[in-house]
From TrEMBL, chains A, B:
Involved in the assimilation of dimethylsulphoniopropionate (DMSP), an important compound in the fixation of carbon in marine phytoplankton, by mediating the conversion of 3-(methylthio)propanoyl-CoA (MMPA-CoA) to 3-(methylthio)acryloyl-CoA (MTA-CoA). PANTHER family: ACYL-COA DEHYDROGENASE, BROAD-SPECIFICITY LINEAR ACYL-COA DEHYDROGENASE FADE5. Belongs to the acyl-CoA dehydrogenase family. Coiled coil: none annotated. Its EC number is 1.3.99.41. Residues 467-589 form the Acetyl-CoA dehydrogenase-like C-terminal domain. This is 3-methylmercaptopropionyl-CoA dehydrogenase. Pfam families: Acyl-CoA_dh_1, Acyl-CoA_dh_C, Acyl-CoA_dh_M, Acyl-CoA_dh_N. InterPro entries: Acyl-CoA_dh-like_C_dom (IPR025878), Acyl-CoA_Oxase/DH_mid-dom (IPR006091), Acyl-CoA_Oxase/DH_mid-dom_sf (IPR046373), AcylCo_DH-like_C (IPR036250), AcylCo_DH/oxidase_C (IPR009075), AcylCoA_DH/ox_N (IPR013786), AcylCoA_DH/ox_N_sf (IPR037069), AcylCoA_DH/oxidase_NM_dom_sf (IPR009100). It comes from Polynucleobacter aenigmaticus. Its cofactor is FAD. Transmembrane segments: none annotated. Residues 285-450 form the Acyl-CoA dehydrogenase/oxidase C-terminal domain. GO terms for molecular function: flavin adenine dinucleotide binding; oxidoreductase activity, acting on the CH-CH group of donors.
């Protein structure tokens, strides 16, 4: 089933909700040539590449996944060639600095491009996604020497990156990392240890792999404060930049997974033959701090994967629902009709569409905040947008991925019996999406981050600032006064109040009843996603009402989707607030033995 | 991972919520030897068989599914032997009449036994499940001759049954069935046509397969009123009961499915070599009516599959959560603890447990209503219980299966990265559960049935009768007066009111705004499941408070689970009522072209 990038919706969101015109005005982006007219050009180009080159690989790659033989991973047919084109066309470097070969454009634009490659193939896109995170970590913390040696080849797509964090005993809790880094006289380190779940930890799509590895030096303190970050290339790099000997890092197995099968998930053994040569990134013992840079980029990116797979599953379901003729129309058609005319099929498609559009709008809004944080000429705006972005990252990650499982599951359901047959392809999305709430920090980790660092730590100030922005939109809805605006206003007000009550409860009780409050962390994350997503959809409605005459078909659909979201998805907010405020005790009552 | 049948919870539900003592007092069951002490004996025996014989086959069978070669399906190793034991021990015949070799016991007892075999292996259990439906259809509609010829061998497990309904163009809409049945001079028929998605339509676990096939006679009216039901044995049966020639029905392919892989799903070709010999069941053109008997049994059974796979996924997740040590306790433990101590893990496990226990209680309650409908000596009670059972069937099917997908998905999530690795086994439940909302009538079909035939047709009378029963429980909660009872009362009252408002809205508007009302059919089904499930859990709490001293550990857990359900799951009811009452219009706004 072909994928058609939703360029129109992406541009609408970028222009009307995320403030593209302001973003491209920031000096560094303007210098790089960004303007509002560049975005459609880039998006069209990206759409073409992903629709034509990557998307057709998605289903065959699932049936013929990457395989391991004698330590060598052979990726699925077509990935190598597609990745070469991806790099050559400059897609790896959209946001990265021109001095290293990138384009230096806003994250807002790059986000749309990445959404497309994820929709085209989650398995494929993981390779550039992880490489992107590795580039960002090197740019943040590595010495100019390391940057010059590694970053340009990663941006060009000649080499890829990997993130080597997890160990068998250290998953969500990285303080338990045990890999060792022993300093050598020449300033390098010898790295020893086992890393698991390493996405594209071994493959044949690039000439070299730049592993970023967490390890402990011999006299490092215990826990998170004793972890350092190292570059460990698969092949050593000579002084002139050419490739040298094989480093002592080897893939010993790849996982047999539920989904994203074409993406090799490696177990890597470092140092079994004398020690892998590693280069310290930044300072010793600050590794986790650097890794967080990479992880925040990756968390946002995984959120985009959720939106991307939801979009793909939605398109597929719509196509099937238009094609499949079965049963009469409920209102009494003379003969059977396409199932898209059945109200419950519409309910499923609208749910898929509503979640996807709302999550996209919120993620792009967050990307614009990231751009403002990094490139706005106004210091106060930079600071404010940092708080906005940091609040939104766990929501973009957690909410978009949780909804993607539901959306992919609905995609199967729309197909009926056909959905359960693998060849149909709907089941692949259901399998693929299932990893998204797990890797790069489970939803629980995102929810803990949102409640602890992002809400309680500032006494709920950032959360309240969002509530105030929503109230402004409520005023705009009231002034608009259309039936749609009024219907949304009613639900948005109730949901915003539920959000505010939850924030008050959480801030007031986090110290005295930590387990009770954190029992509601998932509900709080979901509530935030719903209310902020609905807020973006309400803003979308207001913009669509203004712009309607230019493209009635598109804008009417946007208006209807905004109202559907408010009336059919958003009302869950109040149930979630009850869980948060009243449900903590009963969640924690059972002892481990009583389960 | 071993399965341990939750016999204690099953017996609690049977005795305290479903009225086992009354059920076994009905004359026909009493004559068959049923009494309250028989239930634990049977359940323990069933537990032993399923735990020891069937459950260990579940994971290997997924990895080594049934295969087709030259029209012969070889089932996964172990299934044949296990099915032989299943039949020999009498498990196929628990509810069926003694005159045909069954035990003649209540459905309430059989339901617990079937839950166990489904938990042990959904793929395996489908074979007896479909056979059960076929037996029921034959007992309802077939001539004594056909019954005598086929039923005893099916009850003994020597032969199995299949339900051949679906054709490529006739899935949810059976009026479009095109298979033909041509009468022969000797009173038999020649059957021609293609049937798809036939569970255990071909296999090597029994000596013969008794296909029940929907087809049209030459001069049958169009649509549902022209469908007849036929017995088409795989091997013809001689007058003396011995097996004769191969009939003209052949398996041409089996599906490559997302889950329940060990269960062969066949495409069957009837009559490609001159016509398959079929025997009319009952009267011509009444086939759909008979098939509904079978389908209602099968729908209830699929609901049990949902509960069963949820139970299995829950047990697995609990075990992992107890074993996996990671991160400190939030309240500040000296070192890392098992993840079961993390509030969000408890939230997931409690959600899994809450849904499973509530759905079990509701299904067993429904089974008891079935028994009263068929065996109560009181005519008014029979009639009343028929309405109760018929109202509950789509809820047991739709709610239990929808929740099973969520529960299986949470099971994966509790396992973190391990959950995504196939060898762990959690992913199998996630894959297997995905069919349950589709086959034997999708959730949309159940929801349409619930709203149309079960709610609107009697003007909401049955629904209101449930509301009154819930109000009685609310009074009991108020009299109890414990903190737990009061907390549940608050939520149950709000949810019951949401249910009542929804019923009023649906009944009032079903004629004038059919598409708007049916847009809320899924929400209504889910609302019914939540409020009726919570009602059973409230009744469970009241019973548990009385019985607590006898087994504090078990009953305290029941009380906590009831309260968790009320505070953390039930509040969704109000959001669903908003969807039903206010959300219909926006669900239907988009035209097919706008998607």
């Amino acid at each position: 089933m072909p994928y058609v990038a939703p360029v129109k919706d992406m541009l609408f969101v970028m222009n009307e909700l995320a403030g593209l015109s302001e973003v491209v005005s920031y000096p560094s982006y303007a210098e790089a040539g960004a303007d509002v007219d560049l975005a459609p050009a880039i998006l069209e180009e990206s759409a073409k590449f992903n629709q034509d080159v990557v998307a057709p690989l998605n289903w065959p790659s699932d049936q013929n996944p990457s395989s391991l033989k004698d330590g060598v991973v052979t990726t699925t047919p077509g990935f190598k060639e597609a990745f070469k084109q991806f790099g050559a066309a400059g897609w790896q470097g959209v946001v990265h600095p021109a001095e290293f070969g990138g384009q230096g454009l806003p994250k807002l634009i790059a986000t749309a491009c990445f959404e497309m490659v994820h929709s085209a193939s989650l398995s494929f896109a993981l390779c550039p996604m992880l490489t992107d995170g590795a580039i960002e970590a090197l740019l943040t913390a590595a010495s100019p020497e390391l940057q010059e040696r590694y970053v340009p080849k990663m941006i060009s797509g000649e080499w890829t990156g990997s993130m080597c964090l997890t160990e068998p005993q250290a998953g969500s809790d990285l303080s338990m990392v045990r890999s060792r880094a022993v300093p050598e006289a020449n300033g390098t380190y010898k790295i020893f240890g086992t890393k698991i779940y390493i996405t594209y930890g071994e493959h044949d799509m690039a000439k070299n792999i730049v592993h970023l590895v967490l390890a402990r030096t011999p006299d490092a303190p215990e826990g998170v404060k004793g972890i350092s970050l190292f570059v460990v290339p698969k092949l050593l790099v000579n002084a002139d930049g050419s490739l040298g000997e094989r480093n002592d890092v080897h893939c010993v197995s790849i996982e047999h997974k539920l989904g994203i099968k074409a993406s090799p998930t490696a177990v890597l053994q470092f140092g079994d033959h004398g020690g892998a040569i590693g280069y310290l990134v930044g300072e010793e013992n600050r590794g986790l701090e650097y890794m967080f840079v990479m992880m925040n980029a990756a968390r946002f990116a995984v959120g985009m994967q959720g939106i991307a797979v939801a979009e793909r599953a939605y398109q597929k379901a719509v196509q099937y629902a238009k094609d499949r003729v079965q049963s009469r129309d409920l209102a009494g058609s003379p003969g059977p009709v396409a199932i898209i005319h059945q109200p419950d099929v519409k309910r499923m498609l609208m749910t898929m569409r509503g979640y996807t559009e709302a999550a996209r709008a919120l993620a792009y809004y967050a990307a614009a905040a990231y751009d403002a944080q990094h490139a706005s000429p106004d210091e106060a705006a930079r600071k404010q947008n940092q708080a906005v972005y940091e609040f939104l990252v766990p929501i973009v990650k957690g909410f978009s991925t949780e909804m993607s499982i539901e959306v992919a599951s609905l995609g199967v359901q729309v197909h009926g019996g056909m959905g359960f047959i693998e060849e149909t392809g709907a089941a692949q999305h259901y399998r693929d999406a299932r990893i998204l709430t797990i890797y790069e920090g489970t939803t629980a980790i995102q929810a803990n981050d949102l409640i602890g660092r992002k809400t309680v730590r500032d006494g709920g100030a950032t959360a309240r600032a969002f509530a105030e922005k929503i109230m402004q939109t409520e005023k705009d809805l009231a002034s608009s006064g259309t039936a749609d605006a009024k219907a949304i206003l009613k639900q948005l007000t109730a949901a915003r109040e539920a959000f505010e009550s939850s924030v008050v409860y959480i801030v007031a009780n986090a110290k005295t009843d930590i387990k009770g409050v954190y029992a509601g962390s998932f509900a709080y994350l979901r509530l935030c996603g719903l209310v902020l997503g609905a807020w973006q959809m309400a803003r979308a409605l207001l913009a669509a009402q203004e712009l309607r005459a230019g493209d009635p078909n598109f804008f009417d659909a946007k208006i209807a989707t905004a109202r559907f979201f408010a009336e059919n998805l958003l009302p869950q907010s109040q149930a979630l607030a009850i869980s948060i405020i009243e449900g903590g005790q009963s969640t924690n009552t059972l002892t481990a033995e009583q389960f």
